Amino acid sequence: MSAEIQQVRTIAESGAVSLALQSIDVQQQALDIKSNLKVWLEWERERLNIYQSGKRWQDLQKRVSNYEYDLPDNFYYWAKQQQVDALLILKLGQQARQILQRLIWSEKINLEGSEVQNKWLPIWQHRVIKSYLVENETNDALLAAQRYYQDYRSNNIEDRLLRARILLINKREDEVVTLLMKDTKHPEGGMLYLLAQLRSKARPPQKVLQAAYRQMRGKWASKKLKYMLWAVVAESAQRSNDRPSTANALEFVLAGHKNIELPDGLFDFSSDTLWDVYINFANYIGNSQQFLIGNDQQWLNAAVKAQKKEPVKARSLYAMVMLKSVNEETRLRAAKGFLNLMHKRKRGAELVTKLFLKSEYFKTIKSIPKPVRYELVNIALSRSNIELASTLMATIKTAPAGVDSYQWQLRRSRIFVLGGNAEKGSQALKLLLENNKKLTRDQIDKFLQVVFDLQTVKEHEYAYQLFNTVLPKINDERLQREIYYWMADSRKAQQNYVAAARLYLRSAMHAGNNGLDPWGQTARYQVAEMLAKADLLQDAHTLYSHLLRVTKEPARRAVLKHELQKLWLLRELDKDENQINSDE
């Protein structure tokens, strides 16, 4: 490996993936691909590896799809394999299959006994099976698998596990019991075997549940296996009508695990499955204790009592009241209790997100209880999902209880701005000024920070108007002076140079200043620059000359002299052009 590639790899590993990719661009663009193909390919292989490590699957598949050169077979087929795998991760099975079909039927692959055929054809046919699985095309996956195993007679453990998953998805559990009879000591094989026993009714669900717990406690059980076993527990408990175990296991399944997913199509659990289980469990509790429907306090009291020792039971009772009560205040109390318990649960934030944003019980964001929406905003912000936070905030207009309203409204405005909805953010800021006739200096400073956000996202007209609106509320002459400068910055960004010059000058001379103090000189320099851009060269020359006379610092004097030289050149060019025009 060259030192340059190692350096780029180190950059990528530090987290600066885009910088690493830009470095590769520079290296490859400097190469003539025909005469330096080997070096170009080394960089390209590193590029695809960085896409993979950075999980930039769209970029990877797009890059490979745009190859225009006659690349060597070993690299080309490897790269196409990376593209197919990226599409499968993105759940784009049909697109992956189209690429695979072109490869499988290509001329080189069909040369009998060729190295290309022997090496790549089995891999691609295997990926065809997976392409059907990611789209839940269960019957096609089964047919593709049968064809593959007929062609290659492969019987290693990985192939048996894949066959078992496909058979289970196609409700052929009896065949799985036979297939995996000798693989029960294999971690995943044992899990699939248990699932096949459960679904084929070869073993009572209570026994399967107990066996799944035993496997989970095994020292050899990986995080991935434990996660899949929770799904087996959930299904076993559901079949045996064990309500608390079902709810508990489903919470583990839906809370998920970082970087681990259940095999495609193997289980059928959703957020609504858990909501239904919560309600069923709560009804069972209510019936056994003779709670009255409509007497919400009974249910809430039972939830509070169960919180410490039986949190799943408490969450079920809270869910029942939150979803079924006709009293809005009671529903909100239940939602707060539900959230408080979720805060104490590992990966509770993920569970809250799925339960409320991916459920038929809450078809619109407005139908989600307000305390939950506040929490979802916090979760979205913690994950840097500003777009989701902005969408949620659009449905909330008042601050949560116990939270400073002014601070919260500012936060709401900022979320809109950073979420790409500058108009809504600007409207919220204007309303905040209307509702607060007097502001403290601290409140003004925090308000201005959000206006700066508008400038950062290049929404300069909104920023200008808000600076103009907040100005009368400010008594500090120094801050007024600064605001005129920032207003000028926005006009400058809009290329309204004359208006910008006026505002910079006003900043320099505001409140009786002569404009020769450090702030005034900076503002005057900006005035001169704006006048030059507005083609008012004589005025610009006058201001630069004045500044040069009063400036003592050598570095600033050098800058001013340079600007005057540029102006002289522009004026001379202007004279020449006028002379040419008059001669004509």
Total helix count? 30
Mean of residue pLDDT values = 91
Helix content: over 70%
Uncertain runs: none
Please provide the ordered H/E string of secondary-structure elements. Answer: HHHHHHHHHHHHHHHHHHHHHHHHHHHHHH
Q: What can be said about the biggest beta sheet?
A: none
What does this structure look like?
73% of the residues lie in helices and 0% in strands. It has 584 residues and is mainly alpha-helical. The chain has five domains: 1-52, no CATH class; 56-154, Serine Threonine Protein Phosphatase 5, Tetratricopeptide repeat; 171-266; 270-396; 506-584. The protein starts with a helix and ends with a helix.
Spell out the blueprint of helices and strands:
Elements: H1 3-13, H2 17-29, H3 37-53, H4 57-65, H5 73-89, H6 93-104, H7 115-134, H8 138-152, H9 157-169, H10 173-179, H11 187-200, H12 205-217, H13 223-239, H14 243-255, H15 271-288, H16 296-306, H17 311-324, H18 328-343, H19 348-357, H20 370-382, H21 386-393, H22 405-418, H23 422-435, H24 441-456, H25 460-470, H26 477-493, H27 497-509, H28 518-533, H29 537-550, H30 554-583
Helix pairs in contact: 1-2, 1-3, 2-3, 3-5, 4-5, 5-6, 5-7, 6-7, 7-8, 8-9, 9-10, 9-11, 10-11, 11-12, 11-13, 12-13, 13-14, 14-15, 15-17, 16-17, 17-18, 18-20, 20-21, 21-22, 22-23, 22-24, 23-25, 24-25, 25-26, 26-27, 27-28, 28-29, 29-30
